[in-house]
Amino acid sequence: VYNAMNEHPEAPTLGEVPKVKPNLNAIMDFHAASCAVMEDIGKFEVLLCRSGRLDSRVSVRVETIDGTATEDQDYVPINEIITFEEGETEKSIQVEIINDNQWEPDEEFYLKMSLLLDSEQREGVQLGRISIMEITILNDD
Asked: Are residues 61 and 114 in contact, defined by beta-carbon separation less than 8 angstroms?
């Protein structure tokens, strides 16, 4: 997914996959690198997972990025800060797919996890290997 995003002319360049240091930081990941859902699913949950250090409160931003699917036409955009309390290892976020009655090919968009801008809030947390998740919308029309 990193390579696809880096090569896409309209997507931001993300650079190399970061090295994970679980003994120093809380590591934040999505539960899977990709998933496929039917267009008529409505809302579904995506799991965020925390590993590594669990002894602090950490936060990450989760936001959507267009692929061939576009916000407000194919899915409801997300831009939220998710906070894990000390000892918490899982959180979920609701993703909503917009159902229409026109035929179109299967489309995809991305959920991207990023660290917060404030350097104090970046302390002790890092992104893991699955910080971008591809979601494919399977057309049902």
From this structure: yes
